[in-house]
């Protein structure tokens, strides 16, 4: 499949990676575990940074600072990290799904239908990401936005994201 889409060189590179992974099964599980752990930590940190930024935008203070007990602070910290990791993984899965839809749309592109395919790609990507961004804006911040407001901000963010993706693709 890689050969059909990207050519001989890409297929050879992928085959080298697969052969290397098969020849060292002892490192495969360790590397996979470390990669998954790195992904979870990085995704949680990015989601936490987004949450902090949303608090600054909405002028929301952190309610965890008002709790008195050490146990409550630890419990709040762990629950926030789990929410951040889950939201980041959900965003990554939705982004992968959006990119797969883009690949399917643009993969069947003929020269005379290219403008239509690009418009359909932008529209579907914007709709899918509007829901994802709206959900992130709704649930990541301590200030709960109403659904219409969250989806409005999600639509604006997704349109900007979709056009930015297309500009990078044209570049």
Distinctive features:
171 residues; mainly alpha; 0% strand
Compact description:
With 171 residues, the protein is mostly helical. Helices cover 84% and strands 0% of the residues.
3D structure, described in words:
It contains six helices and no strands. It has helices at 2-6, 8-23, 25-58, 70-107, 114-139, 147-170. Helix 3 packs across helix 4 (70-107), helix 4 packs antiparallel against helix 5 and helix 5 crosses helix 6 (147-170).
Number of strands: 0
Reported for the largest beta sheet, the result is: none
Give the ordered list of helices and strands. HHHHHH
Mean pLDDT: 76
Helix content: over 70%
How many helical elements? 6
Strand proportion: under 5%
- End-to-end distance, in Å? 25 Å
Low confidence ranges: none
| Shape by Cα distribution | flat
By secondary-structure content and strand pairing, the structural class works out as mainly alpha
Radius of gyration: 21 Å
Describe the secondary-structure layout.
Layout: H1 2-6, H2 8-23, H3 25-58, H4 70-107, H5 114-139, H6 147-170
Helix pairs in contact: 3-4, 4-5, 5-6
